[in-house]
Amino acid sequence: MTRLTLTRPDDWHLHLRDSAALAAVLPHTAARFARAIVMPNLKPPVTTTDQAAAYRARILAALPTGARFEPLMTLYLTDRTSAAEIERAKASGIVHGCKLYPAGATTHSDAGVTDLRKLDDTLARMADLGLPLQVHGEVTDAEVDIFDREARFIDTVLAPLVDRIPRLRVVFEHITTRAASEFVRAARDGVAATITPQHLLLTRNALLAGGIRPHLYCLPILKTEIDRRALIEAATSGNPRYFLGTDSAPHARHTKETACGCAGIYSAHAGIELYAEAFEAAGALPKLEAFASHFGPDWYGLPRNRDAIALVKTPWTVPADYPFGADTIVPWFAGESLRWQLAAESGQ
Ligand code: DOR
Ligand code: ZN
């Protein structure tokens, strides 16, 4: 196959940042995806519906002329998010979920939730109103090995939560382990997962063997080949519980190439092409469209997109960097070749 036409996909997990950084990265996403679930981990975080509306307006203002792209906003849950705020969020029509960052789990998560049980009233209101919870699924205990934090989270937080609030719709974001894919497959109705391209294509060897690669450091951290294969199996299975979420997370070069670097892989420049690489390598290209373009909107109760994009199998070299305000970002595959590229007529 040398050309692949897909219903235009959506990105169900994306970091767009703000200001000049936002303006720098948004065109990459808007050229490929019609909509994206926009993460609220700005500094300060997006914790109210009013803040989400203002952020949404800044995103729309930053779009290139003529681009059509709909940001789907989320609220950042804190220990103080009230049931009344959930009602405002749902009534706004622009907020499509609330993001749970366990406090300290990742970039800009210090204002996150310290004890989920204290939020049960808020979560129950979300369940009543059908507002989904997007979960960063890692425990934060310093004594838990970083490679075990997702599996530990399933046992100690997520499984009890899914039982405690039976109608809450939950997206287990960026799953990275066989344990997570198995949990999602067997979970009750209303539980789904997003899968990133890096967790489909890479293992921790890419990060650590033969030299440390700061641009491949993300959270949850890359795992083992057994885990990667389980994610490939899930993504290509045709099970509608698994859908696309890039978790593209730009950081300025100097904050990655440093003694204590930030977590996040920038992938928006090839946000659909990278999945084509992964699905092709698995012999599953015909399964890409449903994963990228059907299962996400179906789960979120939104219409599927009506237009299409095309990918062509024409190798291209990813630039060494992209402008990022006054800085630069180093994209995943910088200076290397990707086999699939977006056909020129697919941009919007
Ligand atoms: O690698 C990551 N980067 N993981 C996250 O959970 C957050 C993200 C970011 O915002 O940079
Ligand atoms: Zn993320």
Structural class: alpha/beta
Going by CATH, what is the homologous superfamily?
A: Metal-dependent hydrolases
**Arithmetic mean of pLDDT:** 96
What CATH architecture would you give? Alpha-Beta Barrel
Main β sheet profile: 8 strands, parallel
Q: Which cofactor or ligand species appear?
A: (4S)-2,6-dioxohexahydropyrimidine-4-carboxylic acid, zinc ion
Strand order, largest beta sheet: 2-3-4-5-6-7-8-9
Strand content: 15-25%
| Tally of individual helices | 12
Total count of strands: 15
Low-confidence stretches: none
Distance between the termini: 24 Å
CATH fold topology:
TIM Barrel
Roughly how many Å is the radius of gyration? 19 Å
How helical, in percent, are the residues? 25-40%
Please tell me what the overall shape is: globular
Highest-level CATH class: Alpha Beta
Q: Would you list the SSEs in sequence order as H and E?
A: EEHEHEHEHEHEHEHHHEHHHEEEEEE
The overall number of domains is 1
Descriptive report:
This protein has 348 residues and is an alpha/beta fold. The chain is 34% helix and 16% strand. It contains 12 helices and 15 strands. An 8-stranded parallel β-sheet has the order 2-3-4-5-6-7-8-9. It has a 3-stranded antiparallel β-sheet with strand order 1-10-15, covered by helices on one side. It has a two-stranded antiparallel sheet with strand order 11-14. Helix 3 (83-92) packs parallel to helix 4 (120-129) and helix 6 (178-186) packs parallel to helix 9 (225-235). It is globular and about 50 Å long. The mean pLDDT is 96. Bound molecules: (4S)-2,6-dioxohexahydropyrimidine-4-carboxylic acid and zinc ion.
